């Protein structure tokens, strides 16, 4: 590998930060055909592709890149779809830098192949040129599966099982399918037309979608089994917001990230009053945490007209769980960062609206369970930040509604469903689970990986079941 | 899609609708609510399920026109489809044979009181109902409630009908009369519930209130509806909507309910559904 590379890693055109911080349009604009072919030409076509080993859903990465190089863009999309049913989504929101691209041989000396951008290109090309075709569906097995939750895990398993000849009903609690892809990830990072296209693709394949159905509140898992579903997959996510439980946290103007993003993304409050759901438009906004959801919330606040948006995080930039790209985008747009800082209380005005956030400075001590150095408060270092809106984006917990209403379904001490890592099998026969409701908050692609495994296990179970 | 099967007007601003929702009709219990969207661009609003008819496959809601969504809902006629109906949500009313119970309903809260009265009767309780309104013209459900409770006392603030005064005064008198009250249920405007709880507190009569904070998903996902109960934060959508009123921070609820008053006004002014 001493030969100097002809072409560097191709950048993807983006909206200018000054322009985009005032709109909700997608930030990266995608490769042109020309750029995609140049980037595809960088792939070494390794015989033992390390990139694929780094992919939770085993995409044939050199294979699809070769097809792009040969100008067979639709073929490339089909090759990806052989193992990944949501390439347009994964190409946008996967942490490639920690998966496929991390393993890329080129990355050892220079920049890895832009696998994610190429994946996105192929999927977008297929969709935008109207080339998407419904795959061949196996002969009917006569078996019925209920998939609960229509986020990344649910969409993935529904697609696989319907393709293999099972009758799939997909239940969604909200009025629109897509789970976190719809309510959580903003338009500027994942345009909703892409999610809608994936859902209508599943429906064309024969998946029956039932919205406004909170399993556990209306029908229970046992009701579904009694009704004749042969198996149930639970992909309900980790939907319950976490608050810090500090004084003043219920003041008006303090949101969970779930609420803030659900208002903006699902309810389209950013288009109020065209849409009826309102959202606070803070001038001085603090966003707590340092994950992708934190960045999404901070960038949403900017787009809703905030003058100052500050990410407040108790550790340093190195420990931030957000993708580097998201942090980079946020900084470019003008989001500020107050690191080694932790809120301890809120101060309200005479109307019960938040007007100040009392913080304490932190320093890093010994490593904790997560391997990251534990932040320790510095005594006497309290100070107050002026805020008129706060978004608490420090994580989520399991929503207890399914475990509580499903007797015999084992959960761990944090309320997550206990499921076999290889099969998604739970303590209840015929009931499988995967995604955040098993692992706690993770990524789209890990939920999809778990769903893939559960799909194979359910298929096997159904074929053995009389 | 859920069709509006029946619509009637109970007062100038209060409407009753029976909505086709067969699965909710089968499952719902007293105290639970549904989330309704009139159209795709609309808000998700929680409304108590007042009654259900399993055979007809319908649930009944009662609502007062207060903002854009309820204006639009009131403008919809029989046969029209609602964009979304989700339910039943929330914990059902804790129900057992308590003995003598008093259910107080104020304003449109009388609609929320109705299913509780019905369930209390079914569970073998004696039910004294106190329903109040500002004035006679806006009093709702008097006949319906009279039919199912043991005793009904009606109040109006202006004395135009029934007892002249507030429901709180009537409850005070009732307690003073030595009536052995095992439990009180209070549903109505937040200040009414707050004052009722102060009436029962010195007598140690457990008082259940039904709270109506702003909600978005109403399934425990967003925390918009958080209320402070006994110093702990609870989500009214999944932990409630009913709580022990003696533990509720009503002032916080009032202040959180005001969070979007400017936007609500703007939406109301821009509403075109009656044109």
Spell out the blueprint of helices and strands:
The complex is a heterodimer of chains A (466) and B (275).
Chain A: H1 17-20, H2 33-40, H3 50-53, H4 61-69, H5 73-81, H6 87-93, H7 100-103, H8 106-109, H9 115-128, E1 144-148, H10 152-163, E2 167-171, H11 180-183, H12 192-205, E3 208-210, H13 221-226, E4 231-234, E5 240-241, E6 254-256, H14 257-266, E7 284-288, H15 292-303, E8 308-312, H16 324-333, E9 336-338, E10 341-348, E11 354-367, E12 373-377, E13 383-386, E14 389-392, E15 396-397, H17 401-405, E16 431-433, H18 436-439, H19 444-464
Parallel strand pairs in A: 1-2, 1-4, 2-3, 4-16, 6-14, 7-8, 7-14, 8-9
Antiparallel strand pairs in A: 5-15, 10-11, 11-12, 11-13
Helix pairs in contact in A: 2-4, 4-5, 4-9, 5-9, 6-9, 10-12, 10-19, 14-15, 15-16
Chain B: E1 2-9, E2 14-20, H1 22-27, E3 33-37, E4 45-48, E5 51-53, E6 58-64, H2 68-75, E7 81-82, E8 84-89, E9 100-106, H3 109-122, E10 126-133, H4 142-148, E11 151-156, E12 163-164, H5 167-176, E13 183-187, H6 190-200, E14 206-210, E15 226-229, E16 232-235, E17 242-244, H7 250-257, H8 261-269
Parallel strand pairs in B: 9-10, 9-13, 10-11, 11-12, 13-14
Antiparallel strand pairs in B: 1-2, 1-7, 2-6, 3-4, 3-8, 5-6, 14-17, 15-16
Helix pairs in contact in B: 5-6
């Amino acid at each position: 590998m001493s030969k100097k590379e002809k072409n560097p890693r191709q950048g993807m055109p983006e909206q200018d930060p000054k322009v985009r911080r005032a709109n909700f349009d997608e930030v990266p604009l995608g490769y042109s055909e020309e750029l995609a072919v140049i980037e595809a030409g960088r792939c070494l076509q390794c015989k033992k592709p390390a990139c694929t080993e780094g992919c939770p859903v085993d995409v044939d990465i050199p294979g699809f890149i070769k097809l792009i190089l040969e100008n067979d863009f639709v073929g490339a999309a089909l090759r990806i779809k052989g193992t990944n049913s949501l390439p347009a989504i994964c190409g946008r929101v996967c942490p490639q830098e920690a998966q496929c691209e991390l393993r890329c041989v080129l990355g050892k000396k220079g920049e890895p192949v832009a696998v994610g951008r190429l994946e996105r290109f192929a999927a977008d090309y297929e969709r935008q040129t109207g080339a998407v075709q419904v795959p061949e569906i196996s002969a009917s097995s006569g078996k019925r599966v209920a998939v609960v939750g229509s986020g990344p895990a649910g969409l993935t398993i529904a697609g696989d099982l319907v393709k293999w000849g099972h009758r799939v009903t997909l239940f969604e609690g909200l009025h629109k399918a897509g789970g976190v892809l719809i309510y959580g990830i903003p338009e500027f990072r994942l345009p909703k037309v892409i999610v809608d296209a994936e859902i209508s693709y599943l429906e064309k394949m024969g998946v029956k979608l039932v919205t406004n159905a909170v399993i556990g509140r209306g029908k229970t898992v046992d009701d579904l089994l009694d009704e004749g579903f042969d198996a149930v997959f639970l992909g309900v996510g980790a939907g319950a917001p976490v608050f810090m439980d500090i004084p003043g946290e219920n003041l008006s103007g303090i949101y969970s990230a779930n609420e803030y993003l659900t208002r903006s993304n699902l309810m389209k409050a950013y288009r109020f009053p065209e849409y009826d759901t309102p959202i606070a438009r803070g001038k001085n906004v603090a966003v707590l945490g340092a994950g992708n959801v934190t960045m999404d919330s901070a960038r949403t606040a900017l787009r809703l007209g905030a003058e100052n948006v500050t990410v407040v995080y108790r550790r340093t930039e190195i420990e931030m769980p957000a993708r580097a790209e998201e942090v980079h985008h946020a900084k470019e747009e003008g989001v500020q960062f107050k690191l080694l800082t932790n809120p301890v209380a809120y101060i309200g005005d005479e109307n019960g609206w938040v007007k100040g956030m009392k913080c304490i400075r932190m320093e890093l001590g010994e490593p904790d369970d997560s391997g990251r150095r534990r932040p320790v408060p510095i005594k006497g270092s309290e100070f107050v930040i002026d805020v008129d809106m706060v978004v608490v984006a420090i994580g989520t917990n399991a929503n207890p509604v399914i475990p509580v209403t499903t007797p015999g379904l084992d959960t761990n001490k944090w309320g997550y469903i206990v499921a076999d890592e290889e099969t998604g099998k739970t303590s209840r026969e015929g009931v499988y689970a995967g995604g955040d409701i098993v692992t706690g908050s993770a990524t789209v692609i890990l939920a999809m990986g778990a769903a893939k495994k559960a799909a194979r296990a359910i298929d096997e179970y159904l074929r053995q079941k009389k | 899609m859920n069709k509006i099967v029946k619509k009637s007007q109970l007062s100038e601003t209060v409407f009753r609708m029976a909505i086709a929702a067969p699965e909710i009709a089968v499952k719902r219990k007293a105290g639970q609510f549904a989330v309704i969207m009139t159209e795709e661009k609309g808000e998700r609003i929680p409304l108590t399920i007042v009654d259900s008819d399993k055979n007809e496959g319908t649930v009944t809601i009662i609502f007062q026109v207060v903002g854009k969504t309820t204006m639009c809902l009131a403008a919809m006629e029989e046969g029209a489809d609602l964009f979304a109906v989700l339910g039943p949500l929330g914990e059902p009313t804790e129900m057992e044979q308590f003995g003598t119970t008093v259910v107080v309903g104020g304003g449109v809260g009388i609609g929320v009181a109705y299913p509780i009265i019905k369930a209390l009767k079914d569970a073998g309780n004696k039910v004294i109902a106190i329903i109040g309104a500002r004035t006679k013209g806006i009093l709702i459900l008097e006949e319906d409630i009279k039919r199912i409770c043991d005793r009904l006392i009606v109040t109006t603030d202006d004395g135009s009908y029934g007892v002249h005064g507030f429901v709180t005064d009537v409850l005070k008198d009732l307690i003073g009369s030595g009536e052995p009250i095992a439990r009180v249920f209070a549903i109505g405007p937040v200040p009414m519930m707050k004052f009722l709880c102060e009436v029962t507190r010195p007598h140690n009569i457990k008082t259940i209130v039904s709270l109506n904070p702003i909600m978005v998903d109403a399934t425990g996902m967003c925390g918009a509806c958080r209320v402070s109960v006994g110093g702990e934060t609870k989500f009214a959508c999944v932990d409630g909507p009913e709580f022990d009123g003696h533990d509720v921070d009503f002032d916080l609820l009032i202040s959180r309910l005001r969070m979007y008053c400017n936007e609500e006004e703007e939406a109301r002014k821009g509403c075109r559904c009656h044109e």
